[in-house]
Amino acid sequence: MDKPDLVYIAFIATDVEKLWRLLTSEADSPFWFFGCRIEIGGAAGGPYRVLGPDGALAVDGEILAIEPPHRLRILWRMPGNPLGEGRQNEIQYRIEPATEGVVKLSVSEFHHLPVPDAWQEAGREGWSKILSALKTLCETGRPLPLAMGEQP
Amino acid sequence: MSDSDYVYVVYIRASAQSVWDALTDGRSTAAFWYGRTNESGWRKGDTVIFRRPDGGIDFSGEVFEADPPHRLSHGFLHPAPGPMHDEGDTRVTYDIVEVGGGAVRLTMTHSGFVEGSIIRPGVARGWPVILSGLKSLLETGEPLPDRLDLDHVVECDPA
């Protein structure tokens, strides 16, 4: 479980604390989570939930580790989603300084089971939107208007 | 057997034409691609050359597909003799699609790696820097700082 199965990375011109605040802000989350809202506890063992734009529970997770402003690890359960059936994946956000004024944001996925292609495609789509939206929000102060499940 | 494709997706608030131009106008890449400039007519069959700041050729290839401003595919071969050259031609493909709201989805697929490729780990480190820099340049007018690129060049291209 120490080596991630999938990693998504973006470099963002911001500071570590600002990005951490965005990443853990329930109020700001719809602006970077394609309209979804997060609910997040403050300590390990606390909840991490993702609610869709319609209020439906998409992720019913749990905080496994929270080390402000650098690391957040979540048990990522997706009730009712066929993609998440029988899976207890872990998702880890890491925020690290890359150089002066730039941080490296990575999302790593840790799986107990082989990763199906459909999961990988959905993950690439979703995380790319999230990383792109966080970068735009940090660097321009304006949200990037992306919708969930929008397919080119 | 061959190593898997490396795919990077990024959403950019820009027109497809601006993304195309930044990749192909020859000079813009210097701001986000480790200082590299490029030379090509960008028509099918043309040669593409990417030059380092010292003028040396970083990689070159043939344009396989060019459908401006939406799809571009070209070869990627290190010209200097050595193990990276010996892996032969790999392929870089960009798909640029408008997604509404003044944004595009850019998908970069780097394919054609041999099994156990030493090129693939290097480009897997480089592409997030390059494409993050492209997004910053187009959305803010400012590239990411040079030092980031230089740090990663050392890691990315030990030759």
From TrEMBL, chain A:
InterPro entries: ASHA1/2-like_C (IPR013538), START-like_dom_sf (IPR023393). It comes from the Bacteria. Residues 14-138 form the Activator of Hsp90 ATPase homologue 1/2-like C-terminal domain. Belongs to the AHA1 family. This is SRPBCC domain-containing protein. It comes from Sphingomonas chungangi.
From TrEMBL, chain B:
Pfam families: AHSA1. InterPro entries: ASHA1/2-like_C, START-like_dom_sf. Residues 14-139 form the Activator of Hsp90 ATPase homologue 1/2-like C-terminal domain. It comes from the Bacteria. Gene3D superfamilies: 3.30.530.20. CDD domains: SRPBCC_CalC_Aha1-like_GntR-HTH. Coiled coil: none annotated. Belongs to the AHA1 family. This is SRPBCC family protein. It comes from Sphingomonas chungangi.
